[in-house]
Amino acid sequence: MNEQEGKHPSTDLTAGHTVRRYDQELARLRTLILQMGEHVSEQGRAAVAALLNEDDCQAYRVLDREPQIDYLSLDADEEIFRLIVRRQPTAVDLRIVLALSKIAAEYERAGDKAARIAHQVLEWIEETDVLVEPVRASLQALGERALGMFERSLRAVAAFDVSQSLGIFEDEPDLDQEARELRELLNGSAQEGLSPRYAITLFYCAQALKHIGRHASNIAELVIYVAIGQDVRYRNREILIETLRHRGY
Amino acid sequence: MNTMVETMNRVTDALSAVELAQERAFCQTVGDFTVPNPRMTCRDVEVWYGPKQAIRRVNLDIGRNEVLSMIGPSGCGKSTFLRCLNRMNDTIPGCRVTGSIKLDGQDIYDKKLDPVLLRARVGMVFQKPNPFPKSIYENVAYGPRIHGLTNSKAELDELVETSLRKAGLWDEVKDRLDQPGTGLSGGQQQRLCIARTIAVAPDVILMDEPCSALDPIATAIIEELIDELRANYSIVIVTHSMQQAARVSQRTAYFHLGDLIEVGETNQIFTNPQHKLTEDYITGRFG
Amino acid sequence: MNKPAPQITPTGRPNPVDIVRASLKRRYARERRFRWLGATAVLIGLLCVVLLFADIILKGYTAFQQTYIRLPIALEAESIDPEGTGARAAIEDADYLALIRNALFELFPEVRDRQERRLLTSIVSVGAPNLVREYVLAHPDRIGTTQEIWVPATADIDMLMKGHINRDLPEAERRVKDQTLGWIDRLAAEGRIAKRFNTPFFVNGTSREPELAGIAGALMGSFYTLLLTLILSFPIGVGAAIYLEEFAPRNRWTDLIEININNLAAVPSIVFGLLGLAVFIGFFGMPRSTPLVGALVLTLMTLPTIIIASRAALKSVPPSIREAALGVGASSLQTQFHHVLPLAMPGMLTGTIIGMAQALGETAPLLMIGMIAFIVDIPQGFTDMATVLPVQIYLWADSPERGFVERTSAAIMVLLAFLFAMNLAAVLLRRRFERRW
Fold this sequence. Notes:
The complex is a heterotrimer. By secondary structure, chain A is mainly alpha-helical. Chain A has helices spanning 3-6, 20-53, 56-87, 91-124, 133-159, 162-189, 196-228, 237-246. Helices cover 81% and strands 0% of the residues of chain A. Chain C folds into 2 domains: 68-197, no CATH class; 216-434, MetI-like (MetI-like fold, Orthogonal Bundle). Chain C is built from 18 helices and 3 strands. At the B-C interface, α3, β6, α4 and α7 of B face α14 and α15 of C.
C-alpha cells in the first residue's frame, strides 16, 4: 500500500478539480453540513443546560430551533442531488458526497435527540424535582463526553481528518462507562428520594446523550471512509485504532 | 582532498541511484495485472516511435470473456498499446515493439506468425465508423471471403446474417442488404463494423474509442452490445469517457505518459483508486 | 438609419456593441468590393473565351460548305472505254479532265481563244477529274450518256461565292478577273453553281489545294497517337503512383524520384521532342514521323501529370478505409486492389484524361520527331507516316492561300470539339465511378 506517499491527507480533499466550480460546490455542501452540525451541537449544549438547570425557557428555545436543522437538511439533500446530476462524482468525490449525505442524516438524528431531551424536560420534570448531587455530576460528565465527541466529529468532517476520528473512537469506552455508571446511580437513587418518574426521565435523557455520542462515532467512521477509502464499520475498534495510528494518522 | 571528492562522487552516485529507484517505483503498476487463465499476456511491452518511447514496460493480462477498458489522458499510449495487440503498428514506419505479447501462449511478434492471420484472430473496431464503400452485405462478407471461411453462397449468407444478428443490426437492415453501408446512421455504421469484425470469428475484439463519434442513444446501444459480446469474446476497449469505462468493463487500466499506472477491478478503480494519478484523472483533477 | 448615440458604460469606455456597429458598414463595404472584384475577373475571363470562340467560329464555319459547279458531262464511251471491255483499269486511266473541259466549252461556246479557254477551265478544281472518275467507277452503266455532275469549284471561286473576294476592287488587284466573274454570274443565273456540304474536308487527307484539303489524315494520326499514348501511359502512370504512394519505403531515393517527377511535369514539352528524336529515332532507329514515336514522346510528357494526379487521388482515400481492410485481415495488396483503387479511380481517370487532352493539343515535341511532314495519305497504323491535328492546324495557318484561313479555323473547331468530348468523358466517367460509392 502506498497511501502515505501517494496521497496527501493534509491537503483539502475537495480541492484541485480542473472545473473549479466543482470544488466550490463540494466545499459549499460541506459548509452546509458543518453548519448543520454546529446547530446540532448548540442544541445539545442548550438541552443539557435545560436538563441540569431545569430551565424551561432553554428547553422551549431548543424545541423552537429544531426546524432550522430540518431545513438545513433539506438544503443539503438538494445540493447533493444537484452535485450527483451535474458532476457524476467518482472515487474520492463519490465518497465525499455519499459520506456527507449520510453525515447529514446522522446530524439530523442527533438534533432529534437534543430535542427529545428538551421535550422530556418540559413534559416530565416538575418544580418539585431536585437533582441530587452525584446524579447531577454524573449526568454532566456524560453530557460533556457525548457533546465533546460530537464537536470533535465536526472538526473531523471539516478536514476529513482521520486522527480526530480515531480520537472519537478512543472516547467510546469512556462514554459507555459513564452511561453505565449513571444508570447504576439512577438505580440506587430511586430509593433515595428521586421519584421513579424523574429517574425514568433522567434515564431517557442519558440514553439520548449516549446516542449523540454514538452518532459522533458513526460520523467518524464515515470520515475514515472518505479519507482512506475503506469501510471500517463493524470492525474491531481496538485493532482498527492500532492499525491506523501505526500508519501515522 | 582527493578522498573528499571521491566521497562526494559516491554520494551523488548514491543519490542518482535513489532517483532511479524512485523512477522505477513510478513505473511499477499498482494493482494486480494478472488474471487466471488469460487470453492474452503482455510482459515488459515497450513501444518506440523512432527515438521516442511511447510505452514503458507494460505488463497486462487480458482475460477470457471480460471487457478490459483502458483509460488515460490523450497521448498516454493507450491507443498505441491497443494497436500493438493486433500489430496494426506494423504499418507505421519507425515503430518498434519489444517485450512479449502472447495470444493463447503464442508470441504474436514471432517471425513465423503472419500478421494477416493474427488480425483475423484479433479484430479491431475503430474510432470513426469506417464501413467499406460497398453494400451492407459485402461489408460483412468481405472478411470471410478473403479468408475463405465459407464454402458456398448459402453458408456465406448464413454467416452474414448471424454476424449482423450478433451485432444487433439484422432487423434494421435485413431488407436492404444491397444498399451501401455508408448510407446507415453513425451508430448503425459502427455496429456494421462490429458485425464485419465478428464475421471473421476472432478471439479478441479491440475497440478504439468506438463511441466517440456517436450520440448517447447510439452509444447506449453499442454499450449494450459490448456487454452481450462479452459472452463469446475478450474485448479491450479504449475510451475517453470514464463513465463508459465504468459502465461496460470488468477491469480498468489507467495509462499515464506511456506508463501503465494502475489496473484493477473497475468498481475498485472508480470508487477507491490506489494511485494518486489515477484518482486525480478519474475525479477530474488532472493538469 | 436611426443610429443611437454611443452609450457610455460605467467604466467610461464606449459600449462594444456601438464600436462593432460603427465598423460594420465598413466591413460590409469591403466584402462587397471584394465580391465585385471577383465577379469582374470572371467576367473578363468569360469575355476572352467568348471572343476567341466567336472569332474562330465566324472565320471557320464557312469551311463546312464548299462551292460546287454542276456540269453536264458527256461520258463518251469512246474516250472513257474505247475498247468497250468495261475493264476497271481502262476506266481509271481515262482522261476525265478533257471531259470536264468539253462540258465547259459546251456551256460557253463563245470562248475560243486558248488563253481564255485555260482561264475557263481553271474555275473547276484540279480535283474535279478524280471526282468524275469515281462517279463513273460507281456507275459504269451510265457510260455513253450525259450526266449532270456537281464538281468542286476552285478555291478562288469558292472564296468569291463566300464573299471573301471584293468585287468592287479594281481588276488588277482582284484574284478573280472580270471575265471569270461574268462566267460565274452566268452559271449562277442558270442555277449551275451552289454551296453544298463539304464532305471532302472530313474524308480527305491534306492537299496543296484548299478546296481539296481535309483533316481525315490528321484525325487518324491523332487517334493512333493518343490511343497508343493511353495504352502506354495509363498503366505505367497508375502503377508508378501506387508503388510510390503505398509500397515504396520513405527514404532519400523515393524523395529524389518524387522531386524529379514534379520537375518533369514542368519541363517544356519541346525537350521531350528532342529526347524522342535522340533516343527513339536516333538510338533505337524507329521510323520517323510515325504515331509510334509520337506516342512514346507524348507518354513521357503525360506520365508526370498522370502520376501526380493518381498520387493525389490515392492520398485522398481516407486512411480509415485502409485500417478497416487491414483490421479484418486483408493483406496489403488486397487492401489496395479491393478498397483503395476503386475509390481513387475517378481521380486517376480525371488526371489521365487531362493528360490525354494535353497530349491531344501538343505540337512542339511532335515537330521535333518529324510529324510536321506533308503527308497526303491517311495513316492506316501505328507505323505509317502521319501528322496530327494541332500540327495540321499549324501547317495550314502557315499557308498563304486564302482558302486555308477558314480551314484552319474549322480544324481548330474540330480539335476543340474533341477536347470538349474528352472532358465530358472525364466528367461522365467520374460520375459513373462515384455512383458506386
